[in-house]
Give the backbone structure.
Amino acid sequence: MAIESEIGLEHAHLTVEQLLEIYRYMLLTREVDNRLRSLYLQGKVVGGVYSQLGHEAISVGTAYALRPDDVIAPMHRDLGAHIVRGMEVGRIFAQIMGRAAGFSGGKDNALHIGDQKRLIFPQISMLGASIPVSAGAALASRQRGEDRVALTYIGDGGVNTGDFHEGLNFAAALHLPLILIVENNQFAYSTPLSKQTALEEIAQRAVGYGVPGARIDGNDVREVYAATGEAADRARQGLGPTLIECVTMRMRGHSEHDDASYVPRELLEEWRQKDPVERFERRLIEGGIMRSEIRDGVQRDIARDVDEAARWAEEQPLPDPAVASEGVYRSY
């Protein structure tokens, strides 16, 4: 399957309202991410914060291209996917701060969150493990006669795990409706891609499994949306899985305790010029789709909403220690 490297607005089949909604999702994701870092620096987070700065086009574009009844299994840098699926921002803040109002009731402080009704599988810390799980969901959907697809994510480092190979091979052999998004942000913690694999493009791995592979601009939300939509259409037609390599850059360290001093400064500066939120905003304005006053209004609304959500989360109590074992161990 060939996916053009440059896909214009006309190829994405999006209305003006949808384009503005995507912009709002991306901006909201950015603002929530920034606020999480601020809370971390204030000592209000009880663990780590894994920024998805620079990944907004991937998390939002992929999730927006799916139907509400499709299965999605995000990773730790896919905050935007949770937001597109309707996960409440206040509860996301509460989750990261370990409050009782978080999605895991204060038993976890990261984006290990899911929602059965929204068909969101929570992240599995052993990266790559979500691939066979998602393939299993795709198989179950087909056995039920449904036309839903399953989409999950993996990073450039995670493509070297056994779960990546086994999960993708299983989906390929059975022609399952799976979409595998590779978020190539060029560093697996501190290891650059050039020291992880001899391949120049991760998408080339698709050939070994007999499935289509596409390498796209992960900082162009229109291209991400279009490629994901094409892969979903293909999956619904019974044509099997697709691997999509989204090339981007991790603009902060592996987590907030990591200063990313191993990343060349000139490389970060190069990618700052490709910022996905600013890039999309600029194109909407230049294309006459969004006026500057609309942008300013959206920014004000989002800033207010994020302030209110963070304030609400900070007011929520910590979990009662008496319930620490509830929902953890099964009684027989």
